[in-house]
Amino acid sequence: MDCLFCRIVNGEIPSRRVYEDEQIVAFADVAPQAPTHVLVVPRRHVGSLDDLRDPALAGRLLTVAAEVAATLGLGAGYRVVVNTGPDGGQTVGHLHLHVLGGRQMTWPPG
Ligand code: 5GP
Ligand code: ZN
Q1: Rounded mean pLDDT of 65-88?
Q2: Domain extents for the chain?
Q3: How far apart are CA 57 and CA 94, in angstroms?
Q4: Pocket test for ligand 1, best of 92, 96, 100 (most atoms within 8 A of CB)
Q5: What pTM was estimated for this model as a whole?
Q6: What is the mean pLDDT of residues 68-74?
Q7: Which of 8, 9, 62, 78 might form a disulfide with 69, Cβ 3.0–4.6 angstroms?
């Protein structure tokens, strides 16, 4: 399978990593939509939130998102987004949590 984020996880494609452990990698988004924009992904291929079905990994992903936000100085707040499927705006078919911060977010999202 040719998956962009699997290739980033295994180091074939370079990225600016901000966190990694045995299950999870977090790296800077190549096209940041906020002063801080990080993607938190599982090392194993999971196509989308619909395919996750793993409460322990889901919890780890959210916990790492919060830890990364704290490490990157987002104490004033941040947003975690999981675009899912075509209507959700998902463009890369490997589950990822967007962590966005460093500016005032608006609501509703586009
Ligand atoms: P989605 O649209 O699926 O929610 O998010 C995919 C994200 O991946 C986008 O924010 C996009 O900028 C980012 N992205 C796409 N290709 C690359 C890449 O090669 N490297 C990195 N670091 N991010 C990428
Ligand atoms: Zn993948």
Answers
A1: 98
A2: 4-101
A3: 14
A4: 92
A5: 0.98
A6: 98
A7: 78
